[in-house]
Each structure stands twice: as structure tokens, then as C-alpha cells.
């Protein structure tokens, strides 16, 4: 757990609910997308990006989102979702997630979301604002 915690400056704790499980007795795959959504918004809040994005005319929009299931998780458990940024371009970036199971002491699921900046008035992609770019770069990891 300590190595995981040190790897991620931004982490979100999520308690697995009984209702997150499916008929097979483990957390349903769709639950991870809600967990990642919670981690994504928490990342924005913890880094101050939520305030920067308070102008509703420009917004980050998901292009796509993915999950890779490594280990089944069951209730009761607590997941720690570590979030970081990769692949920053002028108008988009990727948010990556790793879900660590406290019960199993292992990463159980990884995922990512490709995020595009969007001008809500013109309905077109738009460059990432400079003040937002500065924050994204602080939490960026080069995977190459």
C-alpha cells in the first residue's frame, strides 16, 4: 500500500457498496466507471481545476473511457483510486486510474479516459486554457 500511495499524489477513497455487486457476487463492471468518474471529479477538486473550469462555456468532455479488470472485488472492501495525467496535447489529455483493493492489497482494475476540451457555445474543440495546462503538467507522467 505504501508504494501505491507514494506513486499517486492524488488519490480517492471509495467504499464498495453491497449494491455494487452483480449476480456473480463481485463488483459489476459498470461500477468501475462510476468509481473512475468520482476519482476524476475528485482529481479536479484536489488540484484546483474545478475552480478553473467554473466558466461553463469551456468544459472537458469525455471522448472515451476504458477499464481493464485484473482481479474481482467483493463487498466489503475499500478501493483507493490513484489518478494521473498522460498524453497532453493542445486540446486534449488522458486521465489514467489505478484502483487498489485494501482487502487484497493489490491493484484490481486500471483504466483511462481521453478528455477533450470543448467550447460549449461553438460546439467545437478548443485549446486547453493556459492556467489549466499548468496544473495538468504538474500531474503528468511520461509513459514512454
TrEMBL record:
InterPro entries: 4-hydroxybenzoyl-CoA_TE (IPR050563), HotDog_dom_sf (IPR029069), YbgC/YbaW (IPR006684). It comes from the Bacteria. The keyword Transmembrane does not apply. One of its GO terms (molecular function) is fatty acyl-CoA hydrolase activity. Gene3D superfamilies: Hotdog Thioesterase. Pfam families: 4HBT_2. Keywords: Hydrolase. Belongs to the 4-hydroxybenzoyl-CoA thioesterase family. This is Acyl-CoA thioesterase. It comes from Pseudoalteromonas xiamenensis. The lineage of its organism: Bacteria, Pseudomonadati, Pseudomonadota, Gammaproteobacteria, Alteromonadales.
Amino acid at each position: 500500500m505504501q508504494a501505491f500511495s507514494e506513486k499517486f499524489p492524488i488519490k480517492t477513497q471509495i467504499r464498495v457498496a453491497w449494491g455494487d455487486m452483480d449476480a456473480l457476487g463481485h463488483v459489476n463492471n459498470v461500477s468501475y466507471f462510476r468509481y473512475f468518474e468520482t476519482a476524476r471529479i475528485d482529481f479536479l477538486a484536489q488540484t484546483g481545476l474545478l475552480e478553473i473550469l467554473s466558466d461553463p462555456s469551456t468544459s472537458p468532455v469525455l471522448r472515451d473511457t476504458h477499464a481493464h479488470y485484473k482481479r474481482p472485488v467483493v463487498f466489503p472492501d475499500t478501493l483507493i483510486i490513484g489518478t494521473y495525467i498522460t498524453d497532453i496535447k493542445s486540446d486534449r489529455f488522458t486521465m489514467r486510474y489505478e484502483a487498489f483493493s485494501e482487502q487484497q492489497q493489490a491493484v484490481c482494475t486500471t483504466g483511462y479516459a481521453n478528455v477533450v476540451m470543448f467550447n460549449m457555445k461553438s460546439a467545437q474543440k478548443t485549446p486547453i486554457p493556459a492556467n489549466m495546462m499548468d496544473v495538468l503538467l504538474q500531474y503528468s507522467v511520461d509513459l514512454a
